[in-house]
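To: structure subgroup
Subject: Chain for Friday's discussion

All,

I'm putting the inputs and outputs inline so they're searchable in the archive.
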Amino acid sequence: MRRPPPLLQCIALTLLGATRLAGAQGAPAWCARPDTAGVEIRFLDVGQGDAALVLTSDGRRALIDGGPDGDLLDAYLTRDGIDRLDLVIASHHHLDHIGGLPAVFAARAVTNVVENGMPATTRIYGRFVDAMARRGSRVLTATPRELTLGTATLRILPPWSAAADQNDASVGVIVAHG
């Protein structure tokens, strides 16, 4: 049987969480070698929803959204040794984006928060706001701006000013490095 090309090996190893493919000699070195001067983005499997963790080589950390389940999100962050976050970005205030965030604020220091500024009437939104206030995190307005996160730059794309609902009022972010 022919061995898959190196790029496919790397993708398969990443998706399977494996260290070797059957019949292969393991991942190519360039697949497994971390970029010690760069940025790592981890997309967390939080079920229905979104959560992405941005890590820089100098120890800065940002979380973009938190999925619906605080226990699941907390387990990921605890497993990876994340005890503080420099920045949390809540794209908008639906459960599948902020549901896990109150648990994050309860368990670890969060310095800054960017959110869309459009209040919601849901219980989870109330818990999110209370958790930010209890933690004492600084809320930054989602205006067009660039935030420095160690070796990365996060360009904040503000919500559409004419938005009538949460989805249309989402905060966007572009992560740039190098």
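Points worth raising on Friday:
The beta strands are 39-43, 52-56, 61-64, 84-90, 109-115, 138-141, 145-149, 152-157, 172-176.
Confidence is low (pLDDT under 50) at residues 15-30.

D.
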